[in-house]
Design brief:
- The complex is a heterotrimer of chains A (221), B (221) and C (257).
- Chain A has helices at residues 5-46, 49-64, 67-80, 87-112, 116-124, 129-141, 146-159, 171-182, 186-214.
- Chain A is mainly alpha-helical and 221 residues long.
- Chain A has one domain (5-220): MetI-like fold (Orthogonal Bundle), CATH 1.10.3720.10.
- In chain A, helix 3 (67-80) crosses helix 4 (87-112), helix 4 (87-112) packs across helix 6 and helix 8 (171-182) packs antiparallel against helix 9 (186-214).
- Chain A starts with a helix and ends in a 7-residue tail after the last helix.
- Chain B has 221 residues and is an all-alpha fold.
- In chain B, helix 2 runs antiparallel to helix 3 (45-60), helix 3 (45-60) crosses helix 5 (83-108) and helix 5 (83-108) crosses helix 7 (125-155).
- By secondary structure, chain C is α/β, with parallel strands linked by helices.
- Chain C has a domain at 89-162.
- Chain C has 9 helices and 10 strands.
- Chain C has helices spanning 43-50, 77-84, 102-112, 118-131, 147-159, 177-193, 205-211, 229-234, 239-256, and strands at residues 3-14, 17-28, 32-36, 58-63, 66-70, 87-90, 165-169, 197-201, 214-219, 222-227.
- Chain C has a 6-stranded mixed β-sheet with strand order 6-7-8-3-9-10, with helices on both faces. In chain C, strands 2-1-4-5 form a 4-stranded antiparallel β-sheet, with helices on one face.
- The longest helix of chain C has 18 residues, at 239-256.
- Chain C is globular.
- The chains are: A mainly alpha (221), B mainly alpha (221), C alpha/beta (257).
- Chains in contact: A-B, A-C.
- The structure holds adenosine-5'-triphosphate and magnesium ion.
- The site of adenosine-5'-triphosphate (ATP) has 11 residues of chain C, from strand 2 and helix 1.
């Protein structure tokens, strides 16, 4: 059996439609991850001690357990406790929470990069905690971590096909169904692989540009 | 509660397979990481290019897509590996690609002075790498390698999607049979978490072992 | 005369190190007080406590007639912020906000904290900038300034909140020698103008002697000698003050070489 180009061309439109869903899920998941991650990082640094500690444990736990299980967990448990979300929304939530844990660590590196003197100068001028975060700390902490957050965006994009496990019609699910119908998995799966490779490489190029612009702080986190 | 404890042996059976795959894939990844990481920087052109292609392809697509491709598409090209071998091979290849970047980065971070000192003592390029540079870089590789090992452990959950009855797979079966979703998934999450803690702990010991009695040479402390 | 600042039998520890012990200090309103002393004697700690950046363990601190610290009790955040408005601080390492223009560094707190209109705050900021001789650098970013210029902006920034008490912690120590003069000049103008209570921690003995009404020599977390500059710097009574001044003067000689 060899690669059938005509067949590949025939299924490409359906796959691209799936890819659109994948990209949408990634984008929304990243919005969740960026905001929730920031909230967790801020609470960890500036909230009450017990809350900061709990958030730290939560982050550690989320980072050490598989996204797939977290996905199943939300998919089966949310309806049981009366939260009815579509599979797509559940998937976005799972991606968002999982990557929020990683983003929180990135933000933390950025926040730690702001010197004590900045906090003290803000306090000496009478800024409230909220004003200190908004006017002084975050404007300095965020730009340097943009490239690192970009790397997690790419990582999340590559993880989005997991949503096929809960029946979301993203690109991998489309490929699986197409393959099962025709008994030809080679073309759909290869096409999916090539799509991801192309987009990841393009994104990596973009992130290198961001690194040149913003520096590389927070990358190691 | 007694019932959920009764599920434990079944889950532990799954955990055994999970750990088996993790360890075998980690060994494969370690070898691939060193070979590809060194080849990319120090091998002759065609080999370096080959290593780079391997690294970029496996980093540019996700482990899930790679698993599916090797499991569903590759047999159509006449190569049938079976689920277990596919799992170990793909997860090893995937982690190895990330590991290669760790190796390359750590070696690149050893100061030029160390190369020059070795050369001035009469070492050739390979000798300098083997005796002087690599041992210094190894210490810097341990923490990121620990993170990769945890990513690998988490990635093994994906093998449940190519029919292997690992921890995740057993959780799914048990859930379908007993419908006690919350207990099962929390138990499974905790098992993964403990396994991850174990890896972190082991890597910490390895790092201390490697660091023992060594000043930092040319590396920053 | 009313007191701007009072430390009463204050004790302060960092872990095992006792930084202040039975520390007493009264600063009348409008006074220019210089605090001198060896490294580690607790000078910065005194200023940081007055600025409410640091609490205390025992005793009591009053700022502009109100209790700021009493024992380990920490006032609620809101109260602390209100009290902080009574003092302004200039730091050794400037601590300008690097992402704001020079002008915004100065008007931002009056707008956000004091609730002054943006336009008025900017006008005030420009006035302050010309007072410290930097009117033409309003749009510059802090990175583009020299150390002496940064410190002058930092002084203007603190003044913009119009605090009755100003705290200066070795504001010339991080500067290249040729820039010390311009910053001291600004401080001198401020002192001459009067009205503001000034606490200056400094190693510039001559400058301290010149502008201070009173000098306090600290060592080991206590006030060792306290009096007019002509005494504490000119003719110290305490042996420890003498030893310190002798070593500082030697240091100055070495630097002059
Ligand atoms: N946050 C802190 N944690 C622990 N120890 C501290 C802290 N801040 C100050 N110290 C210690 O308290 C003592 C007094 O410090 P302080 O900064 O007040 O001295 P100083 O007189 O300003 O010295 P210098 O002239 O060097 O600035 C020092 O021994 C210092 O190490
Ligand atoms: Mg000091």
């Amino acid at each position: 059996m060899t690669f059938d180009w005509a067949y590949a061309a025939a299924i490409l439109p359906a796959l691209l439609e799936g890819l659109v869903i994948t990209v949408q899920a990634t984008a929304l998941g990243m919005v969740v991850a960026l905001t929730l991650g920031l909230a967790m990082a801020v609470v960890r640094q500036g909230g009450p001690r017990w809350l900061g500690w709990s958030v730290g444990q939560f982050i550690e736990f989320v980072r050490s357990t598989p996204l797939l299980i977290q996905l199943y967990f939300l998919f089966y448990v949310l309806p049981e406790i009366g939260v009815a979300l579509s599979p797509l929304a559940t998937g976005i939530l799972a991606l968002g929470v999982h990557y929020a844990a990683y983003c929180a660590e990135v933000y933390r590196a950025g926040i730690n990069g702001v010197s004590r003197g900045q906090w003290e100068a803000a306090a000496s001028l009478g800024f409230s905690p909220w004003q200190t975060w908004r006017r002084v700390v975050l404007p300095q902490a965020l730009p340097p971590v943009i490239p690192a957050l970009g790397n997690y965006l790419v990582a999340m994009f590559k993880d989005t096909p997991l949503l096929s496990a809960i029946t979301v019609m993203e690109v991998l699910q489309v490929a699986k169904i197409t393959g099962a119908e025709s008994f030809r998995y080679l073309e759909p799966l290869t096409l999916v692989g090539v799509m991801f490779l192309a987009l990841s490489l393009a994104a990596a190029q973009l992130i290198r540009g961001l690194e040149r612009r913003f520096g590389r702080l927070g990358r190691a986190a | 509660m007694t019932d959920s404890l009764a599920m434990l042996p079944l889950l532990l059976e799954g955990l055994r397979l999970t750990l088996q795959i993790t360890v075998l894939a980690a060994v494969l990844a370690l070898v691939l990481a060193i070979v590809a990481g060194l080849a990319r920087s120090y091998a002759p052109r065609p080999l370096a290019w080959l290593a780079a292609t391997y690294v970029e392809i496996f980093r540019g697509t996700s482990a899930l897509i790679q698993l599916f491709w090797f499991f569903f598409a590759l047999p159509l090209l006449g190569v049938e590996l079976g689920a277990f071998v596919t799992a170990v091979l793909v997860l090893g290849l995937n982690s190895g690609a990330y590991g290669a970047e760790v190796v390359r980065g750590a070696i690149g971070a050893v100061p030029r002075g160390q190369w020059e000192a070795a050369t001035s003592l009469g070492y050739g390029r390979l000798g300098a790498l083997r005796r002087v540079v690599f041992p210094q870089a190894a210490l810097a590789m341990v923490p990121p390698a620990g993170n990769l090992a945890i990513e690998l452990l988490k990635n093994t959950a994906l093998v449940s999607m190519i029919t292997l009855s690992d921890l995740t797979f057993r959780a799914q079966i048990l859930r379908a049979e007993t419908l006690r979703t919350v207990e099962i998934f929390i138990l499974v999450l905790v098992l993964y978490y403990l396994a991850a803690r174990f890896i972190t702990h082991g890597m910490g010991r390895l790092e201390r072992h490697l660091a023992r009695g060594r000043d930092h040479g040319g590396l920053a402390p | 005369m009313s007191l701007a600042l009072a430390f009463r039998d204050v004790g302060k520890r960092f872990g095992e190190t006792r930084v202040l012990e039975a520390f007493d200090l009264e600063v009348p309103s409008g006074e220019k007080l210089a605090i001198i002393g060896p490294s580690g004697s607790g000078k910065s700690t005194v200023l940081r406590i007055a600025m409410a950046l640091e609490g205390i363990d025992t005793g009591r601190v009053e700022l502009m007639g109100e209790t700021l610290w009493e024992g380990t009790r920490r006032p609620p955040e809101r109260e602390l912020r209100r009290l902080r408005l009574q003092a302004g601080m200039v730091f050794q390492h400037f601590n300008l906000f690097p992402h704001m223009s020079v002008l915004e560094n100065i008007w931002r707190a009056p707008v956000d904290v004091a609730g002054i209109g943006r336009e008025e705050a900017e006008t005030r900021a420009r006035e302050l900038l010309s007072r410290v001789g930097l009117a033409e650098r309003a749009e510059a970013m802090p990175d583009q300034l020299s150390g002496g210029q940064k410190q002058r902006v930092a002084i203007a920034r603190a003044l913009a909140m119009r605090p009755p008490v100003m705290l200066f912690d070795e504001v010339t120590s991080a500067l290249d020698p040729e820039m010390v003069g311009e910053v001291l000049g600004v401080l001198r103008d401020l002192a001459d103008q009067g009205g503001i209570t000034m606490l200056l921690v400094t190693h510039e003995m001559q400058f301290a002697a010149e502008i201070a009404d009173r000098v306090v020599f600290m060592d080991g977390g206590r006030v060792v000698e306290d009096g007019p500059p002509s005494q504490v710097i000119g003719a110290p009574v305490e042996p420890r003050t003498r030893a310190f001044l002798a070593s500082v003067l030697r240091g100055a000689d070495v630097r002059a070489d």
